[in-house]
Design goal:
By secondary structure, the chain is α/β, with parallel strands linked by helices. The chain folds into two domains: 2-171 and 356-369, Rossmann fold; 181-354, Glycogen Phosphorylase B (Rossmann fold). It contains 13 helices and 13 strands. It has a seven-stranded parallel beta sheet with strand order 3-2-1-4-5-6-7, sandwiched between helices. Strands 10-9-8-11-12-13 form a six-stranded parallel beta sheet, sandwiched between helices. Helix 1 links the parallel strand 1 and strand 2. Helix 1 packs across helix 13 (357-369). The longest helix has 18 residues, at 67-84.
Length: 381
């Protein structure tokens, strides 16, 4: 089977963790299915993926992400490309279908279509992408999303055939593992003068989220008189200028550590050494930092939502991410009860043992091909 995959038009607008997850799944299915040919469209070649003999990179020029231009590519450009490469299946990691090709299509649903984020910067664009998404949901042969809640919601909202809706659970790199006390102390000394710290991980471009965390941290410091610090890190390479300007006058500035351009390996150490991890974004972005923290055996303070509750269950402290008082209160709750904090951490770690790149890739391949991996002959053991 010749499978054409696009992973490059809208993935600029998602988190690095989500992009890493999709790449890992793709790499596994390519390696374990040498009898199939994969033609992959992306702006840049991933050397790890394209080192396989059955993978070909098609570099189509980058396009502006105006919805009309995106639709033109899907309905005009891609059908011609699919025909050229004699594709038998089209997989879109952008979550969109071509309306003008008869080739079976699989879409990986994007939560960002439901949110007013960087993928849909205006209401006009948001409305247009939403209409495009609805048509794509009807057109697709198979639809893959990251949670059972989203699956049920899409079934209810759009009257989609339940047989073509599937859940591929998220996963994160296995470098996110519990650390020894010596390893934790080494990280604390390096970044926080040996002090414990709350860690914020997530986007660094949304100033309001960061402001709410600072206000919550202020409430915590005033009431607890603790020497705990707040360490900020993110996947973005640049913090919002407005936030950085305000941070200079913040009352507890000496207790705030700003980490920039943190590589994944170091981020795993920073998360694994944290007293607790705080995530406040309401989008697909938050799923991966939550999983990373829980796999490290670190409790999380997060906004409540059905999608996140599927991952964290009762092994998390839930807050209103837009309410600094709510964030601060949960900081205090976890600080005042060390036994409770340790119980949350251990239960969360156990809960995430079922999430892995291998499992997600196995399900993804089963959904798109109707067959399971032959684990006796797989090359990645």
């Amino acid at each position: 089977m010749r499978i054409f995959i696009t992973r490059g038009i809208l993935l600029h607008d998602t988190s690095e963790d989500y992009y890493t997850f999709l790449n890992a799944v793709l790499r596994i299915i390519i390696e374990r299915n040498p009898e199939h040919e994969f033609i992959i469209h992306s702006p840049e070649a991933d050397t790890e993926i394209f080192s396989f003999a059955n993978a070909t990179h098609v570099k189509l020029r980058n396009i502006r992400r105006h919805p009309l231009l995106v639709k033109m590519w899907y309905d005009v450009k891609f059908p011609a490309v699919l025909k050229k490469y004699r594709a038998e299946l089209f997989i879109s990691f952008d979550g969109l279908c071509s309306m003008t090709t008869g080739i079976p299509q699989v879409i990986v649903f994007r939560e960002s279509f439901l949110l007013n984020n960087s993928a849909t910067r205006s209401r006009l664009r948001s409305s247009y992408y939403l209409r495009f998404m609805k048509k794509s949901l009807q057109k697709a042969k198979e639809i893959i999303c990251c949670s059972d809640f989203r699956k049920q919601d899409l079934l209810f909202q759009h009257l989609i055939d339940a047989n073509k809706m599937h859940v591929m659970p998220p996963a994160v790199n296995e470098i996110f593992q519990p650390l020894s006390e010596d390893e934790k102390q080494e990280v604390r000394i390096k970044y926080c003068d040996g002090k414990n710290y709350f860690a914020y991980t997530g986007t660094t471009k949304e100033s309001q989220d960061l402001f709410n965390i600072l206000k919550g941290f202020s409430a915590f410091k005033k009431r607890q008189k603790s020497n705990l610090k707040l360490l900020l890190m993110g996947n973005s390479q640049q913090y919002a200028p407005k936030f950085m300007d305000s941070l200079g006058t913040y009352k507890y500035r000496s207790d705030v550590v700003v980490a920039k351009n943190v590589a994944e390996g170091e981020r795993a150490r920073l998360i694994g050494s944290a007293y607790a991890v705080i995530c406040v974004a309401h989008s697909e972005i938050i799923i991966f930092p939550v999983l990373q923290a829980l796999k490290c055996g670190v409790p999380v303070i997060i906004p409540d939502s059905p999608t996140i509750r599927e991952i964290a269950g009762d092994e998390a402290l839930y807050c209103d991410g837009a309410d600094s008082d709510s964030i601060g209160q949960q900081m205090m709750n976890i600080y005042k009860d060390e036994s409770f904090r340790k119980t949350l951490a251990e239960k969360g770690r156990v809960k995430t043992t079922k999430y892995s790149f291998d499992r997600s890739a196995e399900l993804f391949w089963e959904y798109i091909s109707g067959t399971k991996f032959d684990f006796k002959s797989r090359a990645m053991d």
